[in-house]
């Protein structure tokens, strides 16, 4: 039974400060359009996913609507709605093919500084503690908007830099097949140079996530200040998150 979902993984089991992430609560991946009945069964019955958070734009969600099953909460949160230029959607990758690395670095900075990113991630993180339930969060490829959400969660809970970056870079292994299929599907619409740029846009680079954290440091000084002033999270938020999502070990 094929239930493979592109770039899918759980955060459960990752080592964090004084413990590890609980299993069965947080999952990340790519968009879940046109799911098979086996894939829906996997998410609904095997994993008991009760909430799907979609970080894509309205246009992306309209073009490739998520497969939603009865009873699941679908929560769209466009974290880049006010971005001036972005390389996170298919169209953005094609139109910005010439300078995709610079566009991606700028996008990761906007994921720190833009109003929509701050408000969107605030909403996402607040719901994780106000209404904890098995949650699948995603964007188009499950690598940038989703990657930042996962990295911030792990950072808040005291995961090592290695754990944070290893999870982020795992995308490049888990998207290999999907990336090749996507480039093949779009090949007749792109030049050879655009195909090369598209292949580059569909992977993550360590420098992108590093630029996100560098931007946090430049704008706020400390990560904790970013949580408080950028994301407007209450001082006790991290303790709440830990109590719900971490199994402590002594």
Account of the protein in words:
With 250 residues, the chain is α/β, with parallel strands linked by helices. Helices cover 52% and strands 10% of the residues. The chain contains 13 helices and 8 strands. The strands form 2 sheets. A 5-stranded mixed β-sheet has the order 1-4-7-5-6, covered by helices on one side. α11 (206-220) packs across α12. The radius of gyration is 17 Å and the shape is globular.
Brief characterization of the structure:
The chain is an alpha/beta fold. It has helices at residues 37-46, 58-63, 90-95, 100-113, 115-130, 145-156, 161-169, 171-174, 176-186, 192-201, 206-220, 223-230, 237-245, and strands at residues 9-10, 15-16, 19-21, 26-29, 51-54, 73-76, 135-138, 246-248.
List the helices and strands and how they pair.
Blueprint: E1 9-10, E2 15-16, E3 19-21, E4 26-29, H1 37-46, E5 51-54, H2 58-63, E6 73-76, H3 90-95, H4 100-113, H5 115-130, E7 135-138, H6 145-156, H7 161-169, H8 171-174, H9 176-186, H10 192-201, H11 206-220, H12 223-230, H13 237-245, E8 246-248
Parallel strand pairs: 4-7, 5-6, 5-7
Antiparallel strand pairs: 1-4, 2-3, 3-8
Helix pairs in contact: 4-5, 4-11, 6-7, 11-12
């Amino acid at each position: 039974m094929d239930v493979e979902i592109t770039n899918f993984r759980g955060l459960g089991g990752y080592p964090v400060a004084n413990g590890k992430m609980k299993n069965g609560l947080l999952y990340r991946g790519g968009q879940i359009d046109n799911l098979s009945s086996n894939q829906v069964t996997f998410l609904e019955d095997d994993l008991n996913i009760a909430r799907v958070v979609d970080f894509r734009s309205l246009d992306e969600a309209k073009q490739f609507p998520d497969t939603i099953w009865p009873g699941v909460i679908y929560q769209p949160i466009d974290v880049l709605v006010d971005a001036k230029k972005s390389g996170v959607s298919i169209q953005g990758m094609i139109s910005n093919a010439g300078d995709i690395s610079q566009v991606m670095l700028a996008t990761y900075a906007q994921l720190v500084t833009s109003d929509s990113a701050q408000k969107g991630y605030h909403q996402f993180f607040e719901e994780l503690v106000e209404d904890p339930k098995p949650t699948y969060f995603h964007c188009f490829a499950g690598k940038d908007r989703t990657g930042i959400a996962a990295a911030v969660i792990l950072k808040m809970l005291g995961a090592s830099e290695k754990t944070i970056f290893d999870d982020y870079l795992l995308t490049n292994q888990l998207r290999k097949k999907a990336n090749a299929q996507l480039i093949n599907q779009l090949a007749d619409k792109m030049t050879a140079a655009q195909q090369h740029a598209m292949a580059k846009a569909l992977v993550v680079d360590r420098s992108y996530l590093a630029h996100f954290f560098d931007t946090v440091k430049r704008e706020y000084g400390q990560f904790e200040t970013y949580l408080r002033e950028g994301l407007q999270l209450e001082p006790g938020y991290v303790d709440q998150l830990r109590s719900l999502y971490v199994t402590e070990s002594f």
